[in-house]
Design goal:
Layout: E1 4-9, E2 36-37, E3 46-52, H1 55-62, E4 70-77, H2 82-90, E5 103-107, E6 128-135, H3 142-149, E7 154-162, E8 165-166, E9 175-178
Parallel strand pairs: 3-7
Antiparallel strand pairs: 1-3, 1-9, 2-3, 4-6, 4-7, 5-6, 7-8
Length: 180
């Protein structure tokens, strides 16, 4: 069975090894050959990226029929009320599909959080809040689209967990290899 590499992806890094000349890539952080991402994170998202050197394992991790839960820490603009949280828990109707229900709760800012570079935009008269949100699908920009649809634009998005793998013990921009 293949090996797993866990990487704490910084903001602005592209989830590919080939360079585009504009952004840092995985090649700037991971000098280990033959590992490939099992899934992606948008350039403006941070946190856990799972890579593997085994194509079958890569497919199993990313295949929607396995429904590995993905947990995110989401900083949103505004303070969610119970109605907004309940909409996320039931599934959100978006223009192109209806999401599956999410597990979501209001949390304090995570204690292990690193500063983001560049910092998020802040507006003096609008508070921000943190959510912990777990989804079992992973469509393009899904968490951002879900929070926006309930009136809570995402300011910062950090993937904390995929299945059993977490960011625990990984500083921003660092990686480790572990057994699958």
């Amino acid at each position: 069975m293949g090996r797993i590499l866990l990487f704490n992806k910084p903001f602005g890094v592209i989830c590919q090894f080939s360079r585009d000349g504009l952004h840092p890539t995985l090649a700037d952080y991971i000098p280990v050959p033959d590992f490939y991402p099992a899934g992606r994170l948008d350039t403006d998202s941070e946190g856990l990226l799972v890579l593997t050197d085994d194509g079958q394992l890569q497919h199993r991790i990313t295949d929607p029929k396995h429904k590995l839960p993905k947990t995110y820490w989401v900083q949103v603009e505004g303070v969610p009320d119970e109605a907004a949280l309940e909409k996320l828990r039931r599934g959100v109707e978006l223009p192109d599909f209806t999401t599956q229900p999410a597990d979501v709760c209001l949390i304090d800012e995570p204690a292990s959080l690193w500063p983001r570079n560049p910092p998020i935009r802040e507006r003096k008269n609008i508070p921000t809040s943190w959510l912990e949100m777990t989804i079992r699908e992973g469509k393009n920009r899904q968490v951002r689209r879900m929070t926006a649809a309930v009136g809570l634009p995402t300011l910062r998005l950090i993937r904390h967990r995929i299945g059993e793998w977490t960011l625990e013990g990984l500083e921003q921009g660092t990686w480790k290899i572990q057994s699958p």
